[in-house]
Amino acid sequence: MPQTQNKPAAKPSNQGARRRSKVFLLVLVAVFAWGAVKAFDQLGRIQQKNAELVELKGKLAEATKVNDDVKLELKRLQDPEYLKEQIRSQLNYSEAGETVFEVPRSR
């Protein structure tokens, strides 16, 4: 019987597959890192915009109140009695035959 040497079977080379998987993993980690940096940046921007939104809502409420006050004053100025009262108090007008007395204010 001829003696045959048992040579170990040649293993297929997996180095190429390992290298591809390492490169893929490296690319995947880089993409996730980039995404995390962008998400963190966007979170900061969102917080800044929310703060601006709160400030602008406050300004809008203030402007709305001023607008309502001006509309009320405009409506009052359409009333002849109120108009006469304002003319007398602010401009010191008097009707014919009236004498206006000014009382000095104490300091």
UniProtKB/TrEMBL annotation:
Keywords: Coiled coil
Domain of life: Bacteria
Keyword Coiled coil found: yes
Keyword match Membrane: no
Listed GO biological process terms: cell division
Chain coiled-coil ranges: 46-73
Protein name: Septum formation initiator family protein
InterPro entries referenced in this protein's UniProt entry, alphabetically: DivIC (IPR039076), FtsL/DivIC (IPR007060)
Pfam families: DivIC
Origin species: Paenibacillus aurantius
